[in-house]
Amino acid sequence: MFDFSLFKNLNLHESSDFISALSEIAEFKTFPKNHIIHASGSICSHFYIITKGIARVFYFKEEKDITVHFAAEHDSITAIDSLIQRKKSKYSIETIEETETIAVNINSLELLFEKEPQFERFGRLFLQDLYIDLVERIDDLQLHTAQERYDTLLSKKPYLFQRVPSKHLASFLGMTAETLSRIKGK
Amino acid sequence: MFDFSLFKNLNLHESSDFISALSEIAEFKTFPKNHIIHASGSICSHFYIITKGIARVFYFKEEKDITVHFAAEHDSITAIDSLIQRKKSKYSIETIEETETIAVNINSLELLFEKEPQFERFGRLFLQDLYIDLVERIDDLQLHTAQERYDTLLSKKPYLFQRVPSKHLASFLGMTAETLSRIKGK
DNA sequence: CGCCGAGTTGAACTGAATCAAGAAACGTGG
DNA sequence: CCACGTTTCTTGATTCAGTTCAACTCGGCG
Question: If residue B98 lies in a helix (H) or strand (E), which one and from where to where?
Answer without folding.
Answer: none
